[in-house]
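Same chain as my last thread, 283 residues:
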Amino acid sequence: MILVTGATGTLGREVLKGLPAGLPLRVLARDPSRLGDEAHKAEIVAGDYGDPRSLDRALRGVSRAFLLTCRVGGDDDAGFLRAARSAGVQHVVKVSAAAVEDEGAHDLITRWQRTNEQLLLGSGIRWTLLRPRAFMSNTLSWAASIASEGVVRALCGTSPNACVDPRDVAAAAVRALTEDGHEGKIYTLTGPEPISAVEQTARLGRLLGRPLRFEELSPQRARVLLGARHPAAVVEALLTAAERQRAGAKAGVTDAVLRLTGHPARPFGTWAKDHLAAFGAVR
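reply #2:
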């Protein structure tokens, strides 16, 4: 039995989609109504990390689990690992972040991920860590301004980031969940090339067949816009991470996607072409 968490989100949905038919699968979801069509092949347990009883139900009989947590600063990992240990889970594949290995990264989000990694390593459960760079799908936050104004607004417009297609991260997770030999391994997952927001804007414009304009956000304006979606402490962490990108800390490329999945990491142009409708659907 494999348990998938985070299956209503971008990455967890792709993991569930990629797991072979016929495997015993279970999904833990706070709101099962948000699960996609791929959830039909899994047993659904309604619950969340803060509900020990639902964790017990979800983890009963599970041998391997895909762990994805998003509540920055929270103790969701600790609660999940306690329940997983009690249930006899043998292997946890956890999504962390590439910034963890950067000695210069000390923002709240990175510290939280480091703590969570150490909890897993000290849990007594076999583990695999996936450390992806930023997801290419983050550019979907530009969809409204592209559709209405033909403008992309972002920080660090000329600074490169080796962002990764979430589908490649999901494919790596599926391999780690269904194959032996990945226990005790750490994989830093990136795209095939570093690319800046200015370059992403230009590629989107070519695919859409119309010119797009890039506007650099000031830190002050970015703080306001990010504050509409995130708590203040998370906003400051994101702004700090942007400065690290400006210094070149996010440009490194690895071949981990190829080594895990057998196919090269998808470039941004491929991701954008496959999701182009999302940039023209907002009015």
